[in-house]
Amino acid sequence: MKLEGISSKQIRFFSWLVLVFCLILGWLGILLSLLGIFFGVIIKFYFLLAFGASAFFLVKNFHRDFWKSEFFLVIAVSLTAALAFLFWSAPTIFSGRDQGSLSEAAIRLV
Known about the structure:
Layout: H1 8-35, H2 40-61, H3 69-88, H4 99-109
Helix pairs in contact: 1-2
């Protein structure tokens, strides 16, 4: 993969960072839940730390030619679409705590 101003070594390094982020996030969730200290503040701090590291990597390694208005347009449209789906989504009868009781009630009706 060849992008203007970005070497394949930089792309591989960033891909490894994303992989390590996901692995640590999974293990952090398991560890916190086993210890009984699964607080949202810890996860938010981890995401903030990862976002800061990603932003630092992007600013440090990519040239100014990469930061064009098309890049910001794609990011803005992606974030807007994600937030729109999040805002207007409605829970169904199969979501939440009661899905086990709903399926049990359906079995008892038969």
